[in-house]
Amino acid sequence: MIHVVLAANPTLADFGDDPVWIHIIKAVMLFVVLMLGVLFGVWFERKLISRMQNRYGPNRAGKFGLLQSVADGLKMGLKEDLFPRTVDKVLYLLAPVIMVVPAFLAFSIVPFGPVVNLFGEQTPLQLVDLPVAVLFMLAMGAVSVYGVVLAGWSSRSPYALLGGLRSAAQVVSYEIAMGLSFVAVFIFAGTLSTSEIVAAQQDTWFVVLLIPSFLIYVVCMFGEAARIPFDLPEGEGELVGGFQTEYSSSLKFALIMMGEYLHTFTASGIAVTLFLGGWRAPFPISLWEGANTGWWPVLWFLIKFVLTFSFIIWVRASLPRVRYDQLMSLGWKVLIPVNLAWILLVAGVRNVMLNQDNRVLNVALGLLIVVAALAIWMRFDTVNQRRKEEKKAQVDAEFEELSNEPTAGGFPVPPLDLPHYHGVQHKEIPSGTN
Question: Rounded CA gap, 11 and 190, in Å?
Answer without folding.
Answer: 13
